[in-house]
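Discrete fold record:
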Amino acid sequence: MRYAVKMLTSSDLTLFAGYFRLNSTSKQKGINLDSDILAARLFPALPNAISGTSEHHVLVDIYGPSAASLHRVPRKIIKPEGGKNWRLNGKLIYGPDLDPSRFDDMQPGDIAVFGFDGEPLPTSVSMVLLSANSPSDKPILDYLSSEFRLVPRNHPMAEMSNTDLAAVPMPIGHPLSLLLPDPTRTADLRAIADDDEEARSRLNDRARSGRARPVNAIELAAAKARAQEIGRAGEAVFCSHLERELEVGRIAGFTWTADQNATSPYDFEVTETSGARVLIDVKSTTSSFDGNVHISAAELEFAATDCIYRIARVFDLEGAGGPLLRMSDPIGVLAKSVRSQLAVLPEGIRASKLEIHTRKFTWGDAQPLPSIED
């Protein structure tokens, strides 16, 4: 996440319906975003990326004022023709149904703290509004105004760093804290992208209690794309491992089956020097070894047949020491046991994917793999 702080002017506040009604002579309906900060420092790719359309759609998560909870709206970032700066723009923002007057007391001199997510372009914006009329916001507003020397006309906006944000004095539970880096949320989101229900439950509980930002659809889609990248990278380094095994004569041959057929219930077919055929499914993670692996119904069915089916656990995929590998013993006995238990499910009910913890398998010792760059 990349950060900026903005002292709001009268023209900025016209994005909010209540303020716009009282200042209907204004032609602007948006918050000005300093080009030197948004485009030059935070997102240098933005100008060229939207040069044809002059607008970029984002989700905006609004918190506050007075530490009010999430209000999510789709809006856009635009570059007005002939204008120097960018704007957070779109339709007027109304208060939520249960609090329609929520933004009506915002005044010039109030502050918005922005957290921009996305790479290389912003995909979502978290905006925490701070009102001078709010006892919970006023100390934060005063601190930010002084620390960043915000002046409405001459210096209304400034870039912030993680360190700057962490140094802001804020009450426990204030939504501004939700913009801070949250490694637990990041790890859970990564696991959710791989359909980890335990991680989904943890993150939902934290979001409901206000201890974490809820996940939006754009974040989830990006996480799922990232999960696919990790899976593909894990298969690639395992392929390099098999090439080396072939070179030194520890295997007789192999095929990267999933590279030719993405729906295959296994990733590699290895021929051992004895002539035995071994099917291998690669389960990759950037995290440590322990955790849930996800096995599809098709993989389970295949593993439960009379074949040698093993799991290659590729872990620490992006670790400083390079990725590591542990190979499971054949999983046929476990697969048959699980399949028999699933067979008693009522008619019309079928499990399409299973989470199985690594401790349920028997594993060989860890061995280093070629790095992704290799």
